[in-house]
Each structure stands twice: as structure tokens, then as C-alpha cells.
Here is the input.
Amino acid sequence: MKKAFSLLALVALGAILTGCPSTSSTQRQQIAQASQNVSIVLKGAQQAEIVSYQQHLIPIQDHLFIQHQFSSIGTLGQTTDTCILNSTNTSGAVTCINAAVVAVDQINTNGGLYLKSDKAKQDFSMTILSIRTILASIAQALGGK
Amino acid sequence: MNSAEALVLAQLLSQLLPFGIGIYNQIREANADANLKPIEDILKLADANYQAIIDAAKAQEAQAQADGVSQ
Here is the structure.
């Protein structure tokens, strides 16, 4: 499981560092692309979690909690998209992503405190960390902290 | 690791790898292409995915309630 995360993180980080954006507009488009990429990762992870639950590998209360958190991240994603859309420069868009990273960190902390099943904790944490890595790496590559 | 865990691991890996490759390809193309999609279009696609996630989560909660499980 750790290997899967490491690989994904490496691929994402390597991809982000490929090429250097030359204009603010291009950078903002890359930040928008990052939001779409995160939504793709999250959507797939959600489906994988549902399958794990259906195979009785994740208890129902943990399953419901994780789905609720996915829903929260979905709403957060939409808020972040609106924020990026309304930003006028790269710095503003990076601020949107950084705010999302803080919210994702909180969701990960909540998962560690709530989830009972080790399997659920592991899957949840891996998913959230993957998302965080993509967001944080893009923000950092584009000049954020 | 038992066989059930191995199965889930295989499923997760099979899903994560295409994601990683997809992310790599998308960003590489974005960097190489001077005529990137407008920001509005990209975010519209992202929003559609986020909405699908929210809908799926709600469906899971409704299913659990239909099965008689209280949260």
C-alpha cells in the first residue's frame, strides 16, 4: 500500500516538475488542471473504497464516514475551483490551493481520530495524502510555500 | 497479508497506476501545448467529477439507510 502511494506521489511530483511555465496564464491553467487531476484521483479512490466495503473489508460505519469525507472534499473541490476561477493571477490561484491543502490536512486528521478499522485508516490516509501531495507540489512548483 | 487483502491491494494498484500515468500525461501535454484549454473549461470538468463524488457519497448513505443501518 505504501508502495502505491510512493509511486503515485513520485509520478505526480515528477510530472509537475516537467517543463517550466512561462506565463502567469499558463500557470493558472496548470493549477486548474491540478484541480481536475485531484478530482480524477478522488473519484477513483471513492469507487475503490466502495468495492472494499462491498467485499466486507471495511465496516459500515467507517465506510459511511469515509464517504462523508469524500463528499466534503468534493464540496471543497468545487469551492477551490470557484476560487481559482475568480483569481486574477498565479499568486491568487496558489492561495486557493494552499487553503485546500489546509482543509485536506484537517480531513486526514479527522480520519485518524475517527476510523476504527486499520484497513479503512490505511486506505483513507493513502488517498488523502495522494491528493495533498498533488496540491502541495503544484503550489510549491508555482512559487507557493 | 491474506488473500482478501491481496485482492484489495491489487485493485487499488490497478486503479492508482492509471491515475498516476494519467496525471503525468495531462501535465506533460499541458506544458507542451501553447493552446491550453481555457481555465473555465478545465474547472468545469473538475466540478463535474466533484459533483459525481458528492452524488455517489449521498447514494451510499441512502443505501445504508435503506438497509436499516443508522448512522
Observations:
- The CA atoms of residues 44 and 127 of chain A lie 10 Å apart.
- The two ends of chain A are 28 Å apart (CA to CA).
